[in-house]
Amino acid sequence: MGGVRALAVSFVVPGPCGVAVRDRLKHLTARDEGVLRAVGAHQGALASGDLRARCADGLGHGADTWASRKRELTGVSSSRIAGAITKATHDQWALARRCQAAHIQNLAAGIKTLRHRLSLPIGEKGTKRAAGGYRSKNEWFRKSRRLAALEDRHAVAVADWQAGRVRVVRGGKRLLNTRHHLTEARLTEDEWRQRWEAERWFLAADGESGKRFGNETIRVTPDGEVSIKLPAPLAHLANTRHGRYTLSARIGFAHRGAEWADRITANRAVAYRIHLDVERGRWYLTASWQRPVAQSIPLETARARGMIGVDTNADHVAAYRLDRHGNPVGDPHRFGYDLSGPAGHRDAQIRHALTRLISWAVRVGVAAIGIEDLDFTAEKTREKHGRRKRFRQLISGMPTGKLKARLVSMAAEHGLSIVAVDPAYTSLWGAQHWQKPLTTPHRRMSRHDAAGIAIGRRALGHPVRRRTAPPPHDRSDRAGHRTVQAGPGDRGREGTRPPTTDRPPEEPSPSGKRKREPSASNTARDAPRTQQWAHDSLTRTG
Question: pTM of the entire structure?
C-alpha cells in the first residue's frame, strides 16, 4: 500500500466544560428598557475605548498595562464592571490574533500552490497528489497576477503579525459592511443603526464564587428577580438600595433550571449576559457557568457495546450501527438538514438532526459514536481546487466544526462518548469494500452509508477492509482466516482465493482410474437391510 499516509490514532473526545441557558425577559416596562439601553450604551462606549487602548498596546501589553486600564474604568463604572470589560477586551484581541495567524497560513498555502502550477508547462496534467499546469497562456497570466496580489497581502499580514497589530470591529464586520448594501439587506438606515448600536452594547458580568447568588453585578435570585448594579454616572436611575436597579420581569430557566438553582443557592459563580433582539423586539438573559471536566472513559470501554459510525455531508449525516466486532447491524440511517437561510434556522436544523441521531443511539444501546476529525481549513482555497467552484462551495458549506461541537455537548447529556478518527480514505475504502456487498433489492447503499461503516470500524480499531471467508478444503475450515495468511500489503488479499496446489496427490486405483472413498448417504435406499422382504406372487396384478 505504497503512497498511503499513516493514519492518526483514534481518541475519545473530551466532554464539554461549560453550560449556557437562555430565557426571555418578559413584561418589561418602558422604564426598564430605558435603563437597560442607557447602561448598555454607557458600558459599550467604555468597552470600545478599552479595546482601542488594548490594540494600541500591541505586543507591549502586560499585567501593568492591564491593571492601569482597569483602574481607569473603575472610576466611571465599578471594579467588577471594569474587570468584566478588560477581560472581554483581552479575549477579543486574542481571538483576532488567532484569526490573523490562520489568515497568514491560508495565504501561504495559496502562494505555494500558485508557484507550483506556474512553474509547470502549460497544459501539463496533474496527479491525485498535485495539480498540473494551467490550461492556457491567458489563465497562466491571470494566475501570475493573482500570485503577486497574494504575495503582497501576505507581506502586509506578516508585518502586522510581527508588529502586533490586529483589526477588530465591535459589532461585527459583516454588519458593518451591510451599511453599504442596505437595499440588498432590505433594511432602512434607521433599522441598521438600531442593530449596530445593540450589537455594540455591553451588558454582561462574570460570576464570582462566594458572592451572593454567584454574581454581584447582575444578580438573579432563586425566585427569578433580576437586578443590575448601575455604573457610577447612572446611579441616579436606581430604584433599590446600593445603586441597584431591579427589573419588573421574572425569569425561570426551563432547561437546566434545577442545576442553575443549585449553583446560585450555593453562591457559586454564574455569568450573565443581557442582549436585545432588535428584529423581534425581545430582551433575553443568558446564564452560563463552568462544569468540572468529566473524565473521558477509556477507548476500550467506549468500544465494548459497539459503535455508530457517522459520515458528515453537506445536507445530511449518514449513520450505520456496528457491533463490537465491526459487523454492520441493520440498515443505514440518514438524518437530513437544510443549511439554507439564516443562522438561527441552520442551527435549529443541525440540532434537530443530532437529536434524532442521539435518540437512535440510545435506543439501540451503543456507548459511543464515531465521527471524522474533519478540518477543511486548508482545503477551501481557490488555488487548490481551481475551477471546481461547486466543490469548494460544498466543502465550505459542511458544518464540520459546529456539528462536532454540538454533537459532543448533546451526547454528553445522554452518557454517550464521541470517538474521533482519521478521515483519510474513509469514503474511498468504504465504497470499495462495503457498498456493493451490502446492496440488496430492499436496501440501497450510498457511498456515504459505506463511509459510515468505514468510520465505525476505524473507531472500533478494526481495518476498513472486509474479512472474506476462505473456501474450505472439506467440511472443516482448514484454510483459516485470510487476514492471517495475507498481510495488509499483499496484492489480491480481498480477491478470490486460487485453488491450493500443495495438496498431496491421491493414490490411483489398480485399474488406473481415480479411487473414490466411500461416502455416507442420507437416503433410505442405501440404508443397511435388517430384514428380508418376501414377495408373494399372488399379490401381483397382471
Answer: 0.72
